[in-house]
Design brief:
It comes from Nitrolancea hollandica Lb. The chain has 227 residues and is an all-alpha fold. It is built from 12 helices and no strands. The protein has a domain of 33 residues. Helix 6 crosses helix 7, helix 7 runs antiparallel to helix 8 and helix 8 packs across helix 9.
Length: 227
């Protein structure tokens, strides 16, 4: 406190030393490739992975993100959308680890509905962890056989899922096998219980709107009047 009170100006803090990274051993090679205009972090990651780098692609992408905004980077400057001189190229945002919900959306959405950067993020996830790629394949294949009502593909899919390393898929197969007759009928027949489930949902909505305080007669009157 005395040092702050006696100072003529605000004493700036010394910058904290950079922490060591497993990428330090590969930095000379990365800088050389960067000077050769290879600024694709995914390509750089593939090259150092062949040299024995054990980390994920997201780690490398964060590592080289500071180089993208460094002064003196070669390459054409981006033009201002209004025709002005602009302030130079805007560095792309570094890869951030998505939440489970974001990752599920990123992995299962159709490829043609993803932006370019989202496609790159998906490729990083799939290349960085073989288990993610295997789980996505199982999920996509099951969705396809349900949409196409391909009952002949169900048994092979259940066998693959039951032999996988994922406990969630193995538990799901157990549930499917427990009610196998209904599952086969759902894939083979055109009928469903959608109408019943819709009416039950309408009943629950009306009941919750009354906070559970309305009588059965009032609930019946509301449902019949809405019908």
């Amino acid at each position: 406190m005395r040092r702050f009170l006696r100072a003529d100006a605000f004493p700036e803090r010394a910058p904290a030393p950079r922490k060591r990274s497993i990428l330090d051993a590969y930095e000379p090679c990365l800088r050389q490739r960067w000077k050769e205009d290879c600024h694709n972090s995914l390509q750089l990651w593939r090259e150092i992975r062949a040299q024995g780098f054990p980390g994920a692609a997201s780690l490398l992408r964060k590592f080289v993100a500071r180089w993208r905004s460094a002064p003196g980077r070669r390459g054409p400057a981006s033009r201002s959308p209004r025709g002005g001189s602009g302030a130079g190229p805007i560095p792309p945002a570094p890869f951030s680890v998505p939440s489970p919900r974001q990752a599920r959306w990123l992995l299962l959405r159709d490829l043609d509905k993803l932006r370019l950067e989202e496609r790159m993020d998906r490729e990083i996830l799939l290349d960085g962890d073989p288990e993610i790629a295997a789980a996505r394949t199982l999920a996509v294949d099951f969705g396809r056989l349900v949409r196409e009502r391909d009952g002949s593909a169900l048994a092979p899919w259940m066998k693959r899922a039951s032999e996988s390393v994922f406990p969630e898929f193995r538990a799901f197969v157990t549930v499917l096998d427990r009610d196998r007759a209904a599952v086969d009928a759902a894939l083979a027949l055109a009928w469903s219980n959608g109408q019943t489930e819709g009416q039950i949902n309408r009943l629950k909505v009306a009941k919750r709107q009354m906070y559970g305080r309305g009588s059965l007669a009032l609930l019946k009157a509301r449902l019949l009047s809405a019908a």
